[in-house]
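Sample log: THIF-type NAD/FAD binding fold domain-containing protein.
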Amino acid sequence: FAKLVIDAFDNTASRQLVKEACSAGDIFGDKSNCRNCLHIGFSSDYGEIIWNEDYQVPDDKGVDDCDYPLARNLILLLVAVASEIIIKFVVSGQETKENYTITLKDFNIERYRP
């Protein structure tokens, strides 16, 4: 079965802990390399869905992004795209890992290649 961690925390400290634990292989308790961690997050009208090996933990701005008037719309779009990415990952036998960025103001979903 596929081992997959999904990070959707809303704070920098938690995101950093998940990234480090997955990089070290400490999530499942068997010390296997768990790079199969998908980070999903947003700020204002920008969202990203990035696999652990390409993910950079953002700085903590101290702003509650859920107060953004269109946060719900962006969150729903992020969930839809993330669901597709997860399905591709599982169906492909863990071979397909695609990163995406999303901007709400222009409804742009773009593949991100670091």
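Observation: The helical segments are 12-24, 71-91.
Observation: The CA atoms of residues 31 and 107 lie 40 Å apart.
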